[in-house]
Amino acid sequence: MDIPKAHLVDMYETMVRIRRFEERIRELYFADKLPAFDIAAGLIPGEMHLAAGQEPVAVGMRPHLHPGDAITATHRPHHVAIAQGVDLNKMAAEIFGRETGLGQGKGGHMHLFSVEPNFGCSGIIGEGMPVAVGAAMAFKARGTGNIALSYFGEGAANQGAFHESLNLAALWKLPVVFICEDNAYAISVPKASSTAIPDNSDRASAYGIPGVLVPENDPVAVYEVMGAAMDRARRGDGPSLIEIKTDRLWGHFEGDADAYRSDEFKEDMNVRDPLVAFGKRLVEEGVLSEAEQAAIKEKEYATVEAAIDFALASPYPAPEAALNHVFA
Amino acid sequence: MTTMTDRKLTMQKAIAEGIAQEMAVDPSVFVMGEDVGVYGGIFGATEGLLDKYGPERVIDTPISETGFIGAAVGAAINGMRPIVELMFVDFFGVCMDQIYNNMAKIHYFSGGNIKVPAVLTTAVGGGYSDAGQHSQTLWGLFAHLPGLKVVVPSSAYDAKGLMISAIRDDNPVMYMFHKGALGLGWMVNNPHATGPVPEESYTVPIGKARVAREGTDVTIVTVGLSVHKALDAAALLEADGVSAEIIDLRSLVPLDREAIVASVQKTHRLLVVDEDYQSFGMSGEVITTAVQGAFDYLDAPPVRVATPDIPIPYSHPLETWTLPSVDRIVAAVTEMVSG
Ligand SMILES: Cc1ncc(C[n+]2csc(CCOP(=O)(O)OP(=O)(O)O)c2C)c(N)n1
Ligand SMILES: [Mg+2]
Are B150 and B227 contained in the same domain? Predict the structure, then answer.
């Protein structure tokens, strides 16, 4: 691996932090929805889309990010937000609906917005893509040298916004990287039942921009491909489309019976868990020993726990605060 | 029309049964939308249909709402009766043009020569912290646009009968089911969501309101899950000696103005409960109807309990404060009758 050790360690740490965050949110999500699952009950009511397994798509861009770069993400946003460095305490507090949250409890888990770092997401499929195009327009006009990254699921690639955004970005040669997180399913619908061609990366050719497929759920492969695409965008050579094959280890949302994926599919997926695989590889290549990884785990678990403690210790907003912030 | 039955169903099962029975008798009926097949619809509205009718008639689509809702329009004007699902009404933004410029207007543009017998089903409503892009009702928005019928059932019986009417209707019908009124096991428990439903096929006419509860002191006009909240509020008010009549509109378009006027003439007071945004919507329309049709009968200015003109917030205390509730209904009626 021809990658600085610091970058490998950073990606591993971030993957551990993401996975732990998703695990703890999952535990707390279900904690008081038992014995009968009621989506409206508990510390975290509402839908919850977790990204365990998709860590590589998020951490691979991290070492190439500059301050001020913009990211738009999806209804499954935590991994990307954490990888960009969105304040974990405020993010947790938002998910728990607290006054100290990123949006003071107004937005919730699908609507996390951060000014610094520059992050946004949406519960509407494909919604972030044109926004990333606009961010890139602003960076170009203002000469900031920044780029925009637009994350979306493979299901979103059949939305009009995908095609319109790619065309605009290509037409205007904007500094955007479009990143398709291909976890093979859009809720229950497998990619083969929704998409006329196997690889969305091939769709780049329709807009005359580079399209790259990353066929394995591996942070190192993502690191390399994202590095090239982000450099290209930063140089002013225009957008790229990257498709990364990844795995959603859990249900579409928490509480999803996940009956549409076979046991075999789910077993295979768990066997190739990217966090386990990356950890092993780092040991084998002498980058991080098992003991060093254990120490990283301890540190990252503490960071996540501190964020959750911060959230749980924070007050709920006053009910009438609902009226604030409709207009600037 | 059959009305007597011992069999009880949830509203979700009643909807799926209504669709299944029409598919059995009319080969031109088919269903498409996201996760309507293998999954049976995220809210179960198409449960069991794939097994019964196969993938040619129960079609899982890509996330391409403009494409498949537009395709429903094309199929409808060419001999089919599509039922097309927009998973949450909040997603209309990505496909509205096909709905309001096409589905709703082609009949008119054609001078009545072309019919668009499509049903657009969609889930509406909040109350479970799904935040501002998954909790809206928005029926006022669709009712505002000429050419669409807008149906909102609140009981299992009506849900089945209105679905069958919607499928047989030669006009585009938006069929909006409230997630909290479906009787889903994983949603807030709601005893009103289950009720008697005859096994055989039957219709409930679109455009006729239902008196959900008779009363003498105040008329509460509402629709969807708020009918259930109004019923609970009326039970509490009764203990205080206030008799509330509840009109379940069942459809916004056509609006049963006669039912509104008749009830207000009887009770002399009007409260509109609307989970949709307050301004420029259903509540204003109902009040205008009452003022025009029963002005001399009103003993008090009409009042509304609605969602204030703010996006629906995520955090539980914020959302609870924002949406119409039993408490807000009781308080509004109490103030009206004592004033
Ligand atoms: C416009 C729109 N249509 C439908 C939905 C409902 N929906 C939420 S997530 C989802 C599947 C998304 O699949 P994909 O883009 O592959 O992302 P993944 O969930 O796999 O991460 C759907 C259909 C939505 N939120 N917005
Ligand atoms: Mg997917």
Answer: no
Domain that holds residue B264: 210-338
Domain contains B86: yes
CATH number at residue B165: 3.40.50.970
pLDDT in tens, A10-31: 999 999 999 999 999 999 999 9
Residue A183 Cα, ligand 2 centroid: separation in angstroms? 5
Among the partner residues A107, A155, A188, nearest to B63 by beta-carbon distance: A155
Q: Which residue has the tokens 């969807």?
A: B224
Q: B235 and B258 share a domain?
A: yes
* Each residue's pLDDT tens digit, A125-135: 999 999 999 99
For A52-105, the pLDDT digits (tens) are: 999 999 999 999 999 999 999 999 999 999 999 999 999 999 999 999 999 999
On chain B, the residues whose CB falls within 8 A of the CB of A152 are none
Active-site position among B22, B65, B285, B319: B65
Q: Does the pLDDT of residue B2 top 60, yes or no?
A: no
Same domain (yes/no): B234, B106: no
Which fold would CATH assign to domain A5-314? Rossmann fold (3.40.50)
Catalytic residue among B107, B134, B192, B228: B134
Examine the predicted complex and report whether its ipTM is higher than 0.95.
Answer: yes
- If asked whether residues B32 and B159 sit together in one domain, one would say yes
On whether residue B240 sits in a domain, the answer given is yes
On whether the CB atoms of residues B3 and B195 are closer than 8 A, the answer is no
Q: How many domains does chain B have?
A: 2
Whether the Cβ atoms of residue A320 and residue A106 lie closer than 8 Å to each other: no
Reduced to 3 states (helix: H, G, I; strand: E, B; else coil), residue A256 is: coil
How many other C-beta atoms are found inside a 10 Å radius of the C-beta of residue B108?
Answer: 11
Q: How remote is the C-alpha of A151 from its chain's centroid?
A: 7
- CB of A274 less than 8 A from some CB of B: no
Distance, in angstroms, between A160 CA and closest chain B CA? 7
| Residue B228 is assigned to a structural domain of this protein | yes
- Among B137, B163, B196, the domain boundary falls at B196
pLDDT, mean over chain B: 97
pLDDT band at A2 (very low <50, low <70, confident <90, very high): confident
In this predicted structure, the answer to whether residue B97 has a pLDDT above a threshold of 90 is yes
- 0.90 surpassed by pTM: yes
Dist CA B15 CA B199 (whole Å): 12
Nearest beta carbon to residue B62 from set A105, A107, A194: A194
B26 and B110 housed in the same domain: yes
Distance of CA B22 from the midpoint of ligand 1 (Å): 29
Query: Quick one: tokens of B321?
Result: 């404060």
Q: Are B210 and B250 in contact (CB under 8 A)?
A: yes
Domain boundary among B141, B174, B196: B196
| DSSP H or E segment with residue A311 | helix A290-313
In a domain, B294, yes or no: yes
